[in-house]
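Budget justification, computational time. The allocation requested in the original proposal was used primarily to generate structure tokens for proteins on the priority list. As evidence of use, we reproduce two of the resulting records. The first is shown immediately below.
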Amino acid sequence: MLRLSIIGCGLIGEKRARALQSALLTDKAKLVSVYDVNSDKAAKLASTFGCEAETQMEALAARQDTDAVIVCTTNNAMAPATLLCLQNGKHVFAEKPAGRNTDELRGMRRAALEMNRVLSVGFNHRFHPALQKAKKLLDSDAAGPLMYIRARYGHGARVGYEKEWRGNPELSGGGELLDQGVHLIDLSRWYCGSLNLAFGRVETFFWEMPVEDNGFLLLQSPEGKARAFLHASCTEWKNLFDFEIFGRTGKLQISGLGRSYGEEQLTFYKMKPEMGPPDKELWNYPGEDTSWELELDAFVQTVAGKAHPDLATIQDAIEAVSIVEAAYAASRPLRGPHL
């Protein structure tokens, strides 16, 4: 039984706490304590999930009855919380992007290596069923050799969005490309392998904030055999997730992530020898989003010594955020009608 604590009791912290009580994890993991800078949030989460609320992060990190910590803070607090837990001998599962920049992430990697502890990063989209199924089909060569990826991910934000922590670069480290776009980068690397930035541009079109509301990327593999065209946006107005993988003999298209993004689907377009309209096979995934518990189960397995192949590492986060940073560097000064 892996004993876990959570730092950060907002929306994501609650999702992780709920995942730990799922049927998949109830006999494998136990939530023992939580902490948040807002003590009322911590007390509420502790009451809901039957654990203790700590009033000091240092006290949570030092607990003898905790083996691992899930860090669900704002981006600026990720590195300090993770380092504190690692230095206290805890394994850590940090939500994406795990920090504001690669300097912070590399410091976390060094600490994990020095303490010989597992440090995983929460790229939960890898564990969505449609994306998992697409990975299996691609790995089995069902769509032929991969040629390129085209993907879009976006939302419409909400009134006052530009005043939230994500619009403050001191707290967030970046805008939409670092927030949702990093998922697209990670998934593209998961399918393609190593990718480098060929073109990157971020813009602030609508929201009056000093970070971008849109990011546009062209990535390519070092040998030039695979490419990814990615667009992350918080001016989408209608929440959207659309991820297309093009092979030489077919296309895999994942659309929706459930809830406001629409029902999750995978469509396999199979090219005919004579070409023309392809055959089509469709899988629907209408149930609740199980990626949160599946990913934590992979973390539990990894801590137990059985590394899970789909669980993102701190190195995966470093590679993804490196691409974000390269796009930021290519876009300076940030352009937009309000800047």
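The second record produced under the same allocation is shown here.
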Amino acid sequence: MVDPNRRPLKSRNTAIAQRIARWLAGTPVTPNQISAMSVVFAALAGLGFWISAFAGEPLRSLILIAVALCIQLRLLCNLFDGMVAIEGGKSSATGAFWNEFPDRPSDIVIFVGMGLGAGNALLGWAAAALAVLTSYVRELGKSAGCQPDFSGPMAKQQRMAVATVAAALEIPLAIYLSDFNILEIALWIIIVGCILTALRRTRSLLQCLGDE
């Protein structure tokens, strides 16, 4: 049976993910430690975005490759903390906190870093605030007795996909189209997507509560 409180992820059902989760469950590593590592990778990604604004080639390209890798490692931590906790039988009393809280600073440092890297810190802070808002609406619905709404179009996976693609595209664009600010464009996409996501989740929440 699918747990409605868990984010639906196709990658959770892949053979390689299950093998890695079983291996992690057999080590001393705890799900909470995996959750904490997601913030570390997110912070490294945000720092990399920021530093990339001052680095010359080829160092800048190497930094952006590392940024894209760190964003994906953050998502892998988000995947495996729950799998080790539930499927691996290592859940704890504080698991709910560690499953949810690290995502908030992770989003903030990545998007603020993107804003600094794009030369527009305000845009980064706006994306960070709206990312937190989408999650707040979901948790508000859950606390009100509704099923958690993980819908998009700019849920966590989509936000991180946009950030990863932006980091990857920034490498060739920085060389051949130096005036094309892909990070700024990506932040606008995230901002608009988060607004639509928050509105969609709010509408679903109100419908759940009976105010249609």
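A brief technical remark on that second record: The chain has a mean pLDDT of 89.
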